[in-house]
Amino acid sequence: MDLKLDHHSKDGIEIVDVEGEIDVYTAPRLRELLIELVNNRFYQLVVNMEKVEFLDSTGLGVLVGGLKRVRAHDGSLDLVCTQERILKIFRITGLTKVFGIHDTVDEAISARRAEK
Amino acid sequence: MATVELSFTALPAHVRTARLVATAVARRSGVDESLLDEVRLAVGEACSRAVEGHQLYCPAEPVRLALTDQAGRFEVEVTDTCAPGARWPGSPGGGEGARGGDSNPAGSHPGEEAYSRIGAGLGIAVIEGLADDVQISETSAGTSIRMSWPLPEAVR
To answer: What's the domain count of chain A?
Structure first.
């Protein structure tokens, strides 16, 4: 399936729900959304990837770019993902050390609050 | 002789089609179900890389994908027709246009290029992390990425 994007606020953190496939064709849409959120001063982001069916290195690049943007404003970008086939890509590329990866949105929010 | 050969216009939208075809042929060839996700991702990475290279250097030329099962292995070859020495996305020095999904200058600010370079190396890193055997070779016609996975004894 194609890429479906949505976002909403929860406890002061912007949750980005991603559904479908993130690849060289669809990743630009996710990038545009992350840029738009940062431009609108949302600097605490959680990207919920529980419904992502496919992720490639283009998608990883977009997430790294998003992380860089929010960090420029002392913000954060955490991920929610429990799917082994998606997590494997983060492990192969060493990005598990770069992103906070959580099992649920609530856990990601709690972890972010605890760091403040 | 490849089991299936696919030639497609160098457009990002076609990479998904290439992934689907490769996965279907791998399944039909008997590749273990547990490896199909790896085949799908590695083929997608190789095709994405080829498409981005073609868009930079030879947009009119198609990208080729060949899928073969022989000698107990399922082999995938992705071939581009960019001239050798072209500054490939993902290669050392492959700066402008390098992939990574965040190389779009729109909204860029200091440090952007550094992150693009990080993304640029990810595609090859993913392929090498996934495929059982990887060979990248440059020919006079372009670059080919050859990857293979073992077939179970029962289907050899």
So the answer is: 1
